[in-house]
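User: Can you write out an input/output pair for a complex, sequences first and structure second?

Assistant: Here is one pair. Inputs:
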Amino acid sequence: MRVIYLSTEEMPRHWYNVLSDLPFELDPPLDPETTNPISPEKLLKIFPEPLLEQEMTKKRFIEIPDEVLKEYLRFRPTPLIRAKFLEEYLDTPAKIFYKYEGVSPTGSHKTNTAIAQVYYNRISGTKVLYTETGAGQWGSALSYAGLKFNIPVKVFMVRVSFEQKPMRKQLMNLFGGDVVPSPSKFTEFGKSFDENHPGSLGIAISEAMEKVLNEEGAKYSLGSVLNHVLLHQTVIGLEIKKQLEKVNLEPDVIIACHGGGSNFGGTVFPFVPDKLSGKNVDFVACEPESCPTLTKGVYRYDFGDSSGLTPLLKMYTLGKDFIPPKIHAGGLRYHGASPIISRLVKEEIIRAESFSQDETFNAARIFAKVEGIVPAPESAHAIAGAIREAKRAKEEKREKVIVFTLSGHGLFDLSAYS
Amino acid sequence: MRVIYLSTEEMPRHWYNVLSDLPFELDPPLDPETTNPISPEKLLKIFPEPLLEQEMTKKRFIEIPDEVLKEYLRFRPTPLIRAKFLEEYLDTPAKIFYKYEGVSPTGSHKTNTAIAQVYYNRISGTKVLYTETGAGQWGSALSYAGLKFNIPVKVFMVRVSFEQKPMRKQLMNLFGGDVVPSPSKFTEFGKSFDENHPGSLGIAISEAMEKVLNEEGAKYSLGSVLNHVLLHQTVIGLEIKKQLEKVNLEPDVIIACHGGGSNFGGTVFPFVPDKLSGKNVDFVACEPESCPTLTKGVYRYDFGDSSGLTPLLKMYTLGKDFIPPKIHAGGLRYHGASPIISRLVKEEIIRAESFSQDETFNAARIFAKVEGIVPAPESAHAIAGAIREAKRAKEEKREKVIVFTLSGHGLFDLSAYS
């Protein structure tokens, strides 16, 4: 069977919280003003209470609310596909599977947490949600979710992407999202820049934060890095587990691309307890050489944004002032990483590899030609990782089971292939 | 079950030839020079022998060659999805299903015939394939197929679309297709136009035909209208049949959008024998009000192109000189229609309805919001048709089974939604 489906009835009913099973405590987020552990009151200005609770809880399984489940079922469970044409192309004894998240309404895994976050904001009385977006995947997902639960969504989009990717803006507009290029004229911080400034994720975050801190009923929504965001993404890994069970296979290697960590964490976390209890499974985070957070960063406290407004998180970081060279995988251009993933890398439970742009785009082209799906440039890093592993399996003459998540399609990024 | 899948093993192994079951003979294509029935020799300058045979044959089932089947299995069988969120939104007692062809590598049903046509050209020794494309769906599909069987593909793309849809060009390039805006400098006919002329499908066809008639080893490939093209698309309807059998349902209404007829014919033909043998099933072809070939055209012989180079076909036509107003559904802007479908409309076995741009885009927006897939503007006509039928079912308080084909996604057409 090339495609392993799950029925609606087999859809996971809970998210999995990896914090419940880790044999260590995470270092707490710090207040940027005092550098002491931050108080929940301060965080409540930014996030609604149920999401803060999810950020801290040690409960193993968190029930997916009916309203969220209903939205998931519009496109989930997503298929797990045997990449047998890729196997054939590589002439490898490995069995390669990919979990395809590109079937979501906005074309990437981001919808999984967007729906949950907007739902919890809705029941907490949030009036408007602010966020930033780079390549536009997150802004699209949050706009879509905002439409579902009737909360206005306002997106600050890095100006250079805003201009290069008009279709992302159109997709956000279709779903009712309000998008402005950042730096904008709508914040004091934005006004301090020249009107043609290309912008950066750091500036866009600062603009969104400024709005949230100064507007009654406004909250902030983040698409990666934080514990509750990764929690929501565990539907990916939970589904993969069930799908592999259907064909009586266990993974030898699990691979995903890594930017802030939401796709990687969502894929891998449900398999972490297996590894902690002695199973031999390899977790590989794939990142660009040009933004090598996990492979070359330092494990320390750092800010989440460039201007130092956010709480300090203990994580692998390239430094909040790191400016990555212009690479196409906009979603992987972040200086930091999820605190949970950072710690798991530190503890050598997860390992990371980096990939050049050439190796990545070459993998993307091969994949598009043999498997017939044009991958997002971010997801192409996972394909490159799977190809490396499949070649190793060939050298070792081992019939390894390699699983990776294809987090999104690349139909909005075709110019990058030119 | 919301999504009805078929396994690889359940993939149809044959195309279905509706000509074998029709109780009448089609009028033959005529030679444009003599207006007598055209000789096969003349057609062999344009098409390879196996495709000409398929154009004429009365055999009921044509085996899908292994090489073509292998390519189909990269993305087929495609899912049949219960549109239960649309049903809920419309509060209709009808059961609505859609066959989703947007999962193909180039995002539309066109790949089904592109793969077959390139394969038969390959085994017939064709050196290069010429074609034209409007919105770009067909050019993308043929480029993809050309890559698979290693035949260079050269596409004349209507200049106004070439400029408005750069991503389509990029997709063709990714798959190795060579695309030029038409009118071009590469043909005598193209040179007769001003270099900024916006172009038309008629001009692009003439350019491709001029190349084919003057270049050794060159052949022409058409994405719709002809019998063999519709034959290849019957995998759609054959799969739908199997999928409905799995849930023990029979269709009351089958709907598809109609441009040249390939998507519509592919969907409906496998159900035609049921209707001929007395079953009560309604076939509805949905076309734009602005290009109302089946609803307002005349049933007579006409040319397939604007300059009168192609054979004459007996069909519904708005006249070869008909210039449709600028509408977004580029794939439905054709003055003629498939001769088989035309005759079935004439015989009242198929009926047609037309839809305004407003009704169509409104249907598309509703569908994107409730079902989470952004439809191609062409496919949106079928959604509009399904919504009309679902409302009728509600008025009649009947639990009708409505099936339509969603022939492609609209991710390259988002500007049309703005």
